[in-house]
Amino acid sequence: MTTSVQAQAYGGTEVLAIVESPTPEPGPHEVLITVRAAGVNVADVKVYGGVWGTDPAKLPIPLGFEVAGVVAAVGDGVEHLAVGDAVIAHPVRGGYATEVLAPADTVIAKPEGLGWAEASGLQLTGTAAAHAVHAAGVSAGDTVLVHGAAGGVGLVAVQLAVLRDATVIGTAAPGQHDLLRELGVVPTTYGDGLLERVRELAPDGVDAALDLAGTDEALDVSLALVADRQRIATIANFDRGPKEGIRVLGAGGEEGKDVRAAAAVEIAELAADGRLKVFVEATFPLTAVVAAHELLSSRKATGKIVLLP
Ligand SMILES: NC(=O)c1ccc[n+]([C@@H]2O[C@H](COP(=O)([O-])OP(=O)(O)OC[C@H]3O[C@@H](n4cnc5c(N)ncnc54)[C@H](OP(=O)(O)O)[C@@H]3O)[C@@H](O)[C@H]2O)c1
């Protein structure tokens, strides 16, 4: 039997339930993964919170888009994976589980040297970060403004931008500034006066901006500072982003499937050799999914929250 987490209605954490069901068998081009760790993401909360609709026909919704684990069975036509392989998979449906089926083309080798928790939290935020850095054309010599620099996506985005030899200014709460400095980022606080603070930190101008926060302030400051709107990317402002002529990334915007698939492999390699750090804030057993989501929603966590089935 498989134990998993489902949203049985739309609402708050009260709709989450732990359920038992027969362990599925992989169909053609699928693998069954024994989950060792499942990354928790803002998207998991949004999906049952009704942000993307409240269609009753979609209930119950299995949660969890990314996992690390061990291949337990392979379906027909799977050639690059075998039983016993340590892997990471994203996107999957229902990763908050003891076992999950994954399309084989979403599965790659787990980066050696990375723990299960770190490995499970690498892909969703990591590929979004890589997509943003790519879309905004971040390259050597650029000055880049990153809004929400200490979030799940932000911590990867700033590291990728620094690896590209850009100068990175990142917005975050003051308690995150030391961490950002350690990553080579010039930190500043979001909120009133942000435009002036960034102008002072970047007297020669800002070449590109990544909005990973989705606030009006992030968008307004980016538009005021960056001349080329194609070098402003948002992953979180789907209301104003399209109207402003900037790059809007992710479901509902540019999906960037090829960019993200290539990035999945690239960031796994960077993490394997230590050039990309993965920060895990906390781990919870699967049965404590409500506590994990409460911590995520409190926005007090730095780095990933992970469930250990
Ligand atoms: N489109 C896509 O493909 C895609 C993929 C992944 C995520 N997303 C979305 O992107 C957003 C960020 O995701 P995440 O996983 O990084 O979330 P997260 O880990 O919760 O990080 C969000 C960060 O936003 C910062 N923040 C809070 N209020 C802010 C403000 N007023 N101005 C600037 N920053 C502020 C917080 O920083 P402090 O701790 O410093 O306060 C927090 O670290 C979410 O809306 C998520 O749904 C989209």
TrEMBL record:
The keyword Hydrolase does not apply. SUPFAM superfamilies: GroES-like, NAD(P)-binding Rossmann-fold domains. InterPro entries: ADH-like_N (IPR013154), ER (IPR020843), GroES-like_sf (IPR011032), NAD(P)-bd_dom_sf (IPR036291). One of its GO terms (cellular component) is cytosol. The keyword Nucleotide-binding does not apply. Residues 11-307 form the Enoyl reductase (ER) domain. SMART domains: PKS_ER. Keywords: NADP, Oxidoreductase. GO terms for molecular function: mRNA 3'-UTR AU-rich region binding; NADPH binding; quinone reductase (NADPH) activity. This is NADP-dependent oxidoreductase. It comes from Nocardioides marmorisolisilvae.
